[in-house]
Specification:
Blueprint lengths: L5 H8 L6 H12 L1 H4 L4 H17 L5 H14 L7 H10 L7 H6 L3 H9 L5 H8 L1
Helix pairs in contact: 2-4, 2-5, 4-5, 4-9
Length: about 130
């Protein structure tokens, strides 16, 4: 009989859907080229993967929201989701089965985005992927 540990199950749940990394990469190349300019492609893919895993762990399930979460990670920082107000909003919507990230963005003030950006932690780019 096959036994799966809770850690293995959690790691499986946090895997991005097939093709999401490629879609996210293309979105960044199109919409935020200056944010990814000069980043080694292999490192960029690890960063995107990490952002996707973080998003999934925050309850992001829809493709549109996953790409949005990656975009916000590059725009405001890989740990933007730890800012108090943003974290609370993500928690409110995490069981939604329809895209909800636009509502989170709309309900987040400029001051909250600035606070998230000011708390930028470059080590967060790889922390989730290492724990998955």
């Amino acid at each position: 009989m096959l036994k799966i540990t809770p850690e293995q199950l959690e790691a499986f749940k946090a895997r991005p859907p097939e093709g999401m990394l490629e879609l996210s990469r293309q979105h960044l190349k199109t919409h935020l080229p200056d944010y990814i300019k000069g980043i080694d492609p292999e490192i960029l893919d690890r960063m995107i993967h990490n952002a996707l895993v973080r998003g999934i762990r925050r309850g992001i399930r829809q493709g549109e929201d996953m790409i949005g979460f990656v975009t916000l990670s590059f725009k405001y920082g890989p740990n933007f989701d730890e800012q108090g107000h943003i974290k609370g909003l993500l928690g409110q919507y995490q069981n939604e089965h329809t895209p909800f990230l636009p509502q989170v963005v709309a309900k987040t003030s400029d001051a909250d985005w600035k606070e998230a950006q000011d708390a930028y932690d470059s080590s967060a780019w790889f922390s989730e992927a290492n724990s998955a």
